[in-house]
Write a structure and sequence with these properties.
Layout lengths: L1 H11 L3 E4 L7 E2 L3 H4 L6 H9 L8 H13 L2 E4 L12 H40 L16 H27 L3 E3 L2 E3 L10 H7 L17 H6 L21 H6 L8 H11 L5 H10 L3
Parallel strand pairs: 1-3
Antiparallel strand pairs: 2-3, 4-5
Length: about 290
């Protein structure tokens, strides 16, 4: 039995590519070495691996494409500096790592077919939006690819910040944020780290954010015990409390490929648990 467990861990072990050429904080989990190389990756490589490097020219790029097929499951950029951050602190880097490892968990739970559709959808949006403000996720209006992106990415963003808070807490978390907004520990919410404030303050109606359709703050609103409302300065009316990350994870299924279907399954698996309030909260996030 122990040998079988070790072999299973080896089969799921991920190969990680580190780069300082891609954008600050960029990360991806295509799981190429597990799934096979099924999508043309030039724009993917440009966004997540090389940035605008001159390595795109000549045989080096061709060799890299071949290597990707066999050697890359996760890519992590450790490049410092951006419009949102003055430096790349360790908890921000860890947030990216937690985010990408969450995607590998999606692959392990939901399987190759689901995950291949998820990756293909993201690469499709990268190809069509590269160089625009809507890269890499798109604008949320492409009904053929964006629903599964919204589902897969919302969970990863939640877990990335949630576990960064668990690791660093209020005392050691640095400034961080989403939606182009930088938060510090206790910003407007005493006692919460910047990572939890980032989730709590996520605004699905913030028009300056092209990715506001990805409900990054939804799970924390379902989980936390604060009844934050628009009247008190919150982005949504949150009257839900007490759900757990385990309940969220259990509600994922290979047959579910959008947030609305996920909502239905979450409610079905937790009958009578604040159903009206949960439905209302999802509606405020656009689902």
């Amino acid at each position: 039995m122990q040998r079988q467990k070790i072999l299973a861990c080896q089969q799921l072990a991920s190969k990680i590519f580190l780069t300082d050429l891609a954008a600050h904080g960029a990360g991806s989990s295509p799981m190429f070495s597990k799934r096979g190389f099924d999508v043309g990756p030039q724009e993917y490589v440009q966004f997540f691996i090389l940035g605008n490097s001159s390595l795109f020219l000549g045989p080096t790029f061709t060799a890299l494409l071949i290597a990707l097929k066999h050697q890359v499951d996760i890519s992590i950029s450790y490049k410092g500096g951006s419009s949102d951050y003055t430096s790349f602190a360790s908890d921000d880097l860890k947030t990216t790592v937690y985010h990408e490892l969450t995607h590998t968990g999606e692959y392990a739970k939901l399987g190759k077919t689901w995950y291949s559709q998820f990756v293909a959808s993201e690469i499709s949006e990268i190809v069509s939006t590269i160089g625009s403000g809507n890269s890499p996720y798109g604008g949320g209006s492409n009904s053929s690819v964006d629903p599964i992106i919204g589902l897969g990415e919302s969970w990863a963003y939640h877990i990335g910040h949630y576990f960064a808070d668990k690791r660093y807490g209020y005392s050691y978390s640095s400034s961080t944020g989403e939606q182009g907004i930088l938060y510090y520990n206790g910003t407007g919410i005493a006692g919460l780290s910047s990572h939890l404030i980032t989730l709590e303050n996520f605004n699905p109606n913030y028009t300056s954010d092209p990715f506001r359709w990805i409900p990054k703050g939804l799970y924390y609103d379902l989980l936390d015990t604060r009844n934050e409302t628009k009247a008190t300065g919150g982005p949504v009316d949150d009257y839900v409390l007490g759900f757990t990350n385990q309940q969220f994870f259990n509600a994922f299924s290979s047959s579910i490929k959008d947030v609305s279907s996920y909502k239905t399954n979450l409610i079905s698996q937790n009958p009578g648990n604040q159903t009206t309030q949960v439905t209302n909260l999802f509606q405020q996030y656009g689902y």
